[in-house]
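User: I'm preparing a small set of examples for a lab meeting where we compare how different chains pack in three dimensions. I only have the primary sequence for this one, and I'd like the structure in token form so I can line it up with the others. Please keep the answer compact; I'll paste it straight into my notes.
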Amino acid sequence: MIKFTKFNLCALILGFSFLYIPIVLLIIFSFNESKLVTVWAGFSTKWYTELFNNQSIKDATWVTIQVAFISSTVATFLGTIAGIVITRFGSFKGRTLFSGMIYAPMVVPEVIIGLSLLLTFVALTIDRGIFTVTLAHITFSMCYVAVVVQSRMSSYDDSITEAALDLGCTPLKTFFVVTLPIIMPAVVSGWLLSFTLSLDDLVIASFTSGPGATTLPMKIYSMVRLGVTPEINAVSTILIGLVSIGVVSAAMINKYQKQKEYVQS
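Assistant: Understood. Below is the structure token output for the 265-residue chain.
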């Protein structure tokens, strides 16, 4: 057992402080009365009002939500199939290549993914816009869903499926009636994770977007280049809240599923 020393405690505090104090300050100064982000002039929510009256930010938010919802839904469908294939079909010809293609977007730098997708769209003469950004987000978020589903399927009891087949269920009906409800928490967690990743993406969207397809992270980045304002702090705070809700929800679903499995066992 590793002893928890004062040095470890100090290192832990310093590490978490370095990570989270800037985020906390950003949230606090989003309620600042003054336009100067470094000078506190009193509590105010006027920057949130200004934010909701900013049409360009609302347009970018709508694009981001569209892309995130569609890409996460498609990525969840494809990632679930990929995770089931890897765990249920054992060794098959091309399994190593298939697994490598699934996991590649997790280890390849986002700049490389964005550039390669840009070159692909240019070669295929596909106009860049919401469609190309959505395809790009499906590409890199699908692998995360596959990993989550694969983790759940690795502990799946095959005897349940075999019992359903012995009782006369077709393989397709067995999947929808038996398998899918059991792995549904993992599927939902994968959807939430991919939705969060899509909301947070800047690099890949910058390469694959076009006119009328500016996402919220891209809009924030363009605004920051002109100087940080409390309005940027406000939109960043909202984005932090959405991402936090997605991550916490996915974690709670996984925890609930593990507790449920423990009780059943």
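A couple of notes for your slides: The chain has one domain: 45-264. The chain is about 75% helix and 0% strand.

User: Perfect, thanks.
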